[in-house]
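User: Can you predict the 3D structure for this chain?
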Amino acid sequence: MNGQPHFKLNAETMKHMTLLALIVALFVLSLGARAAGPGPKWVPEKGYWVVETNIHVANKAVVYFYNLKNELVYQEAYEGRLNLDRRRVLVRLNRVLEQAVAAWEQKTPSASPAQLLARQLAD
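Assistant: Here is the predicted structure, written as structure tokens:
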């Protein structure tokens, strides 16, 4: 053969090759994101929490703790200021979340938490 390529690249073939390269790149990136490991300590892994406040009643809040199935596992009324901009407060809310989810999973009355948030934030 006289140095000529055996195939011709037309526009349709180039589109397919580009699409295939994009799919492979996205797959590789998704694998890398999973292998990155756990996130920061202030990002909860076992559920989430919601803080409800009222602008007319200062220094009072109700914190609701949910598991990953969106089931309410614990709630507590808290009297005091919750500064959600502080990492320390976020980490402590996540500790309470972990304890509440663990007690919920055990489903025993003796394991039900009481005043977990107040104890965590009192330190």
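The chain has a mean pLDDT of 80. Residues 12 and 18 are 10 Å apart (CA to CA).
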